[in-house]
Amino acid sequence: MLLVISTVADSGQIVESLPGYPGKLPFTLETGYVGVGDLEEVQLFYYFVESDRDPVRDPLLLWLTGGPGCSAFSGLVYEIGPLNFDFDAFNGSLPSLVLNQYTWTKVANIIFLDSPVGTGFSYSKSQESYYTSDTLSSKAIYEFLRKWITNHPKFINNPLYIAGDSYSGMIVPTVTVEVAEGNRAKHKPYLNLQGYILGNPVTDLHNDENSRVEYFYRLGLISSECLRQPKHTVLENIYHQMQAMLNCTIKVCDAQILEPKCSFASPKPMGLKWGRKFFDDTPIDIALSSQQGPDNWCRNSNYVLSYIWANDEGVQHALHVRNDTITDWMRCNKTLAYDYDILSTVFYHKELIMTGYRALVYSGDHDMLIPYTGTVAWIYTLNLTVVDDWRPWFVEGQIAGFTEKYAHKVGDGLVFITVKGGGHTAPEYKPKECLAMVDRWLSYYLL
Fold first, then answer.
1. What is the DSSP string of 361-412?
2. Which residue is catalytic, options 114, 134, 367, 412?
3. pTM
4. Catalytic residue, candidates 166, 211, 306, 363
5. Alpha-carbon distance 98 to 288, whole Å?
6. Exposure of 322 in the CB half-sphere (CA atoms within 13 A)
7. 207 vs 78: CA distance, rounded Å
8. Catalytic residue flag (residue 367)
């Protein structure tokens, strides 16, 4: 059924100042809701930041954080957005904000979208509409985009890229296909889709998990004996092999193997099988527990500030959050009524590349959750031609990682990049390098 996009009044409002930031914001921030679905019962909340450089000509990125159920606020403040929390100055009161000198909004306009429904400040007017899935969420995002562009016509000609990380590896290619098919079907408005960007992406649930074994071995976390298949594939031998790997890796930080493991976080009961919710988030009551101290800091401690800030009444008023639409804001909502109905997006990647769309796929090479080894493996299955062999890329004269470029008969193809020292996900750990990466790629420069 053809969706008719009505030209309803835009609910977006400009935010000129925020609690915790001194003075007026030095960039254009808009927040608002776009209604999607039957009777617009689902209200998707977004943060939109205009490019510092040239909003009229610079690319437009739609940013989707993983989870599923993790707010795009993570992308805004912890990864690629114009603000960071001032962790050193935090004293238990409302956290203060500082500018991120490596924000991607230096080179692009970015919509940070709370999706699916139930994520961040996005909500539904009915209980039934809270039930969603990979497929339904992707269709809702496509509807959001068409309505948002209709209400922001000055960005209709900007090059459009769908972007995200972690579990968004299942959603970004699906949304990109939705947009491409909508354009072919001549849906209005026409979206100037150029390609997509993915960081540390979940792509194939089975193979992503299996790739960890090779990664463990390459990083020296398990022995060669653990890598080999048992001589007799009886359950007892397989169990001992899995137990050996578990004993070697359970105390290693999943998101960045060189960082300390959160000693106060509950252990993962499933051992090597981490499950489908890849963003690890510690409840605020645990993260604020007395077991923490300067000697056992872990990165999850930083996420506490988002709970304190986003649940503040003054903050929600400044962001134009509608009253009584959410009870408690969570960085990652793990109670979604969600159906994981897409098992792999490898076919979507192949379809998009062969149609001529550009793709940037990057991985922090110290990420143990979604190792780069698995990403390289599924890229090889696309049977693309290597046009630029594996080589280092540089930032300020230093190796920032390694890259390889693949192409098909048409279009610019796919660029794969590792970010040296990056974790899950790379911009949080290596912001300078990741800004250089995306700036060069969006500008069609060689890395």
1. EEEETT-SSS-HHHHHHHHHTT-PEEEEEEEEEEETTEEEEEEEEEE-SSS-
2. 367
3. 0.91
4. 166
5. 22
6. 16
7. 28
8. yes
Helix (H, G, I), strand (E, B) or coil at 431: helix
Domains in the chain: boundaries? 13-203+341-442, 206-303
Q: Compute how many other C-beta atoms are within 10 angstroms of the C-beta atom of residue 110.
A: 28
94 alpha carbon, distance to own chain's centre: 26
**Residue pair 49/105 in contact by the 8 Å Cβ criterion:** yes
Terminal Cα-to-Cα distance of the chain (whole angstroms) = 43
DSSP letters of 211-249?
Answer: HHHHHHHHTTSS-HHHHSPPSS--HHHHHHHHHHHHHHH
Q: Average pLDDT for residues 420-445, to the nearest whole number? A: 96
Tell me the CB-side half-sphere exposure of residue 338, using CA atoms within 13 A: 20
Q: Is 408 a catalytic residue?
A: no
Crossing angle (nearest 10°) for helices 205-218 and 235-249: 70
- Residues 81-137: tens digit of each pLDDT: 999 999 989 988 999 999 999 999 999 999 999 999 999 999 999 999 999 999 999
Whether residue 68 is preceded by a cis peptide bond, meaning omega within 30 degrees of 0, is yes
ω into 116 cis (within 30 of 0) = yes
Catalytic residue among 187, 366, 408, 424: 424
Distance separating alpha carbons of residues 406 and 434, to the nearest angstrom? 20
Q: Which numeric CATH code is attached to 13-203+341-442?
A: 3.40.50.1820
